Each structure stands twice: as C-alpha cells, then as structure tokens.
Amino acid sequence: MLQRFGSLTFWSGSFFVLTLAFACTAVLGLIVTLRARTSNVRRDIYVHALLVSLANTTVAAYLTYWGIIGYRSWT
C-alpha cells in the first residue's frame, strides 16, 4: 500500500487532488450557506446547513495547518 504513495501514481495523485477539492468545496459551501441567509429557507434548515459548513471548513483549516491538504507524497 505505501508503495502506491511513494511515487506519482493514480492513488497519490488522487489523494493530492481530492484533498484540494475537499478544502475548496468546504469554503464554497460556507460561502453559499452565508449567502442563503436572506433567502426563503426555514430557520432550522439554515442553522443545520451553517453548522455543517462551519464543521467542514474547520476540518479543512485543521488539515491545512498540518499540511495534509495538497500533500504530495511523491516528493
């Protein structure tokens, strides 16, 4: 399993791209949720979406801090 990440392979490249995609979609989800505040959405649904978006953005920030987002294992 570790041999797949030691050089640029489908697995290591996918890990790199998908971690970047996760961080981008987490931030975009938070932006979309904040912009939906003025729309006609029930309050409990909006609060749930906001909490989930904040959780995803927090996880993305944590993983970015520790260098996992965009990690290139082949270098």
Order of secondary-structure elements: HHH
Pick out the low-confidence regions.
Answer: none
Beta-strand portion reads: under 5%
Backbone CA Rg: 16 Å
Main β-sheet description: none
Mean pLDDT: 94
- The quaternary structure here is single chain
Overall body shape: elongated
Distance between the termini: 17 Å
Total number of strands: 0
- Helix fraction, binned, reads over 70%
Enumerate how many helices there are, as a single number.
3
- Structural class assignment: mainly alpha
Describe the structure.
With 75 residues, the protein is mostly helical. It has a domain at 14-65. Helices cover 71% and strands 0% of the residues. It is built from 3 helices and no strands. Helix 2 (10-35) runs antiparallel to helix 3. The chain is elongated. The mean pLDDT is 94.
Quickly list its features:
3 helices; mainly alpha; 75 residues
Secondary structure layout plus pairing:
Elements: H1 3-6, H2 10-35, H3 43-65
Helix pairs in contact: 2-3
Task: Quickly describe the structure.
With 75 residues, the protein is an all-alpha fold. It has helices spanning 3-6, 10-35, 43-65.
